[in-house]
Amino acid sequence: MSEELIPIYIMGKQYMVPPSLTIQRAMEYAGYRLLRGCGCRAGFCGACATVYRIAGDYRLHIGLACATLVQPNMYLTQIPFFPAERRSYNLAELKATPETLFSIYPEVLRCLQCGTCTKACPQNIDVRAYMAAAMRGDIAAVADKSFDCIMCGLCAARCPAEEVQYNIAILCRRLYGRYIAPRAQHLAERVREIEAGKYDAEIAALKAMPKEELAEKYNSRDIEPD
Amino acid sequence: MIYTPEMYESLKRVEATRSARLSETFPRLSAQEKEDLLRRFHPDFIPEAFATLQVGPNKGGKAPHELARVLQARPVISPDFDVTRTDIETDILVIGGGGAGSAAALMAEENGARVVLVTKLRHGDANTMMAQGGIQAADKPNDSPAIHYLDVMGGGHYANDPDLVEALVLDAPKVIQWLEELGCMFDKEPDGTMITIHGGGTSRKRMHSARDYSGAEIMRTLRDEVRNRSGIFVLEFTAAVELILDDRGQCVGAVLLNMETEEYLVARAKCTVLATGGSGRLHYQGFATTNHYGATGDGLVLAYRAGAHLLHIDTMQYHPTGAAFPEQILGFLVTEKVRGLGAQVLNVDGVQFVNPRETRDVESAAIIRECRERGKGVRTPSGFLGVWLDSPMIELIHGPGTVARELPAMVRQFARFGVDITKEPMLVYPTLHYQNGGIKIDVNGATEIPNLFAAGEVVGGIHGRNRLMGNSLLDITVFGRRAGIAAAKRAREVQPGRPTLQHLVEWERQLQEAGLDPQDRAPILLPNYVGQR
Fold first, then answer.
1. Residue A3's pLDDT is what?
2. Which residues of chain A form CATH 3.10.20.740?
3. Secondary structure element (H or E) that encloses residue B86, with its range
4. What digits encode the pLDDT tens for the residues A75-104?
5. Which of the 8 DSSP states describes residue B336?
6. Are B214 and A148 in contact (CB under 8 A)?
7. What is the C-alpha separation between B152 and B145, in angstroms, rounded?
8. 3-class DSSP state for residue B135?
9. ipTM metric
10. What local confidence, expressed as pLDDT, does residue B2 receive?
11. Quick check: helix, strand or coil at residue B439?
12. Which of A210, A202, A212, A208 is nearest to B170 (CA)?
């Protein structure tokens, strides 16, 4: 398959690459053996946060290198790591209250609500909106709105108020998951049953069963309808 | 609007049959039909794809050529490398920063051990992060660990280790509760009831999820918790290249490589936990893979060279629904949750040819047959074949908005390349997904090598010859925790001897005896895609 090659500029240096490639694969095509800036290669890990401009366009663009196609005259660099403040805490000793959030991350209240973070998010999360919720102490809203965060760090890299939004967000999600979301009662009940040994005999019988008998049981098992 | 006119012709037929298909259930295959299908079309049954191992504990056994090559390679360091010096000293050395390694580190720390966790990329760069669909646990009233046990054994073709399966299904509800307490946001009803659905091969709806970021939610939570623990030191961009044994054959640590400075370090540990994950980046049989960048089978190589048996390494899991179009995302995982929510699998005529809930191996074999033998695949512009996964019908079954709510990652992933999966089906083909087998362990993650533990995708026996969806996030948590606890307890009584690399001398002897003179060195640590299109 022949393709016209296009020029891209990796940290200012020109390489000619096929236009059908993602930024990540174009860098490899150009000769880079990636170490930093490459993780899952499928948009889930946030290792390959990239910023770029297109010659002639004043705007700064962002994207994940694994999920963004190259364009002619793209000037790019990866931001594989950005220093980020993170506080340690003992989740078991916290309460899901606004005071918890404000005491662990008092800088939440410094947010300017400028929306630069939202523009910088490759997941199209409205980061500004969840920071607004954080300023209100609405932990459940932060948890919900930030859920798709892959913690790539671009929001923190661009923030004029020096927030580390994604660390604030995961604290809120963990507070929500542990304290605000109602616990699964059937789960707790099943754990009690297992600890009481309720299923031990049945499983021991299955373990002792000859393969043919087990297969017969498997092939004739009833399947819960949709 | 990126499908070609020919693909749109086929899509019209998909749309035309959709309403009739809503009430249509494709019959399940009988045990005999499954067996025949697998033998004829599953990649595990292509004899030319496998080599007979000539050295090591599995000598005489089979492995894919790509794996055999790294298993029978020469080590990265020479046997006279000085392992008597100490750069890092700890109770527990965890090698690997995915879900299993993180769970092991947390539990070892809780049991009083000092832990060093090394990982060759970033903490969390792992297949765990990419698992989308969910995690199984029998916690509903109509379900039980015994029913889960039967599903796992049948799905694994009864090759599973019954003790490991018992541990898996009995620990399952407990680890879901552990994750819930760590703050994982599982999908729940307003009253807290877990929302659970089917996966391929499940007889009860026991798939718990966190939208379609299930693995990411578990991974980032475990990682965050590791960062809260002062007893765990994490060293990123640091790989293990060799295990160190003592004069009594016990594992006493590992030789590490700083991936950035290329400096070697000697880590001494009372117990070591291998949690290096899978090997999809070896691209068995040339398949594209869903796996993360570092999935190069390092732990298999290290343990094998040190004398540990590997189980079922002649079977790999091909996920039935890897993206087949557009080319930029070839091989990307399309979560099984799509089928779990009711999407059917269709050929070029818009007709079903397999029940969407068969186990992964059977589903994959059926898709390969449809494309290769029956000529009913859809051809892409670059010559790949695929079949349709009818995601829009989910909206008809569960109501408008379901796809966006339940599958946000999938929607985003395809939207980046111009496909709206709420309105248009995805084109899919099997993709290399999972290493079914691996290092032999007991129920506490102990390997055959004293003081060496293992957990996660690097181990074998839990899933037999085929893993069910949702049992991998489960096994990394169950056995990661067990290995961490057991290693911490064992560390209290370990008496380490004199560190040596004598096993490398023995390895070289075995190579020569077998008449092998491999030029490759392993572990390879990262794949090399330089210059590839």
1. 73
2. 6-78
3. none
4. 999 999 999 999 999 999 999 999 999 999
5. T
6. no
7. 10
8. strand
9. 0.97
10. 84
11. strand
12. A202
Give which of B331, B260, B123 is closest to A45, Cα–Cα.
Answer: B123
CB within 8 A of B358, min separation 6: which ones?
B28, B29, B34, B200, B201, B366
pLDDT for res A2: 60
Place of tokens 């400075």: B261
Low-confidence ranges of chain B (pLDDT < 70): 1
Domain A6-78 is found in CATH 3.40.50.300 = no
The tokens of A187 are what? 């789960």
B521: enclosing H helix or E strand: strand B521-522
Instruction: Residue B215: list chain A partners with CB under 8 A.
Output: 44
Where do we find the tokens 């064992």? B490
Comparing CA positions, the residue from B295, B158, B153, B302 lying closest to residue B242 is B302
Best residue in B33, B122, B402 to probe A by mutation, most A CBs within 10 Å?
B122
pLDDT at B533: 82
Q: Are A37 and B121 in contact (CB under 8 A)?
A: no
DSSP state of A177: I
Instruction: Tell me the two tokens of residue B277.
Output: 């994950």
Instruction: Annotate B201-257 with DSSP letters as a single string.
Output: T-SS--EE-STT-HHHHHHHHHHHHHHH-TTEEEE-SEEEEEEEEETTS-EEEEEEE
**Amino acid A1: pLDDT:** 47
CB contact under 8 A, A177 and B183: yes
- Classify residue A64 by burial, with Cβ atoms within 10 Å: 0-12, 13-18, 19+: buried
Q: Which helix (H) or strand (E) holds B502?
A: helix B502-513
Q: Which residues of A touch B224 (CB under 8 A)?
A: 170, 174
pLDDT in tens, B393-420: 999 999 999 999 999 999 999 998 999 9
Read off the tokens for A69: 């196609």
Cβ <8 Å between B412 and A148: yes
Q: Which of B339, B379, B465, B490 is catalytic?
A: B339
Does residue A1 belong to the interface with chain B, where contact is any CB pair within 8 Å? yes
Residues in a beta bridge with B316: B435
Q: Are strands B264-274 and B452-454 parallel, antiparallel or unpaired?
A: parallel
pTM of the model: 0.97
Residue B470 has a pLDDT of 96
Chain A residues with CB-CB distance to B190 below 8 A: 182
**Mutation choice for B interface testing from A41, A193, A209 by most B CBs within 10 A:** A41
Neighbours of B358 (CB within 10 A): 22
- Contacts with A41 from chain B: Cβ below 8 Å: 292-293
Q: Enter the tokens of residue B113.
A: 């051990």
Helix (H) or strand (E) holding B301: helix B298-305
Q: Do A62 and A154 touch, CB atoms closer than 8 A?
A: yes
Nearest to B268, CA basis, from B123, B114, B121: B114
- Provide the sign of the torsion angle of the four alpha carbons B295, B296, B302, B305, taken in this order: positive
CA atoms within 13 A on the CB side of B457: 28
Which residue segments constitute the domains of chain B, with CATH numbers given? 5-41+319-432 (3.90.700.10), 92-315+436-502 (3.50.50.60)
CA distance B463 to B233: 32
Nearest CA among B130, B128, B212, B271 for reference residue B403: B212
Backbone angles phi, psi at B529, to 5 degrees: -110, 15
Concatenated DSSP letters for A58-122?
---EEEETTS-B--TTEEEEE------------GGG--SSHHHHHHH-GGGGG-----HHHHH-T
To the query of whether residue B123 is one of the catalytic residues in this protein, the response is no
Distance in angstroms (rounded) separating the CA atoms of residues B30 and B36: 10
Residue showing tokens 């630069």: A116
Specify the pairing of strand B385-389 against strand B310-311: unpaired
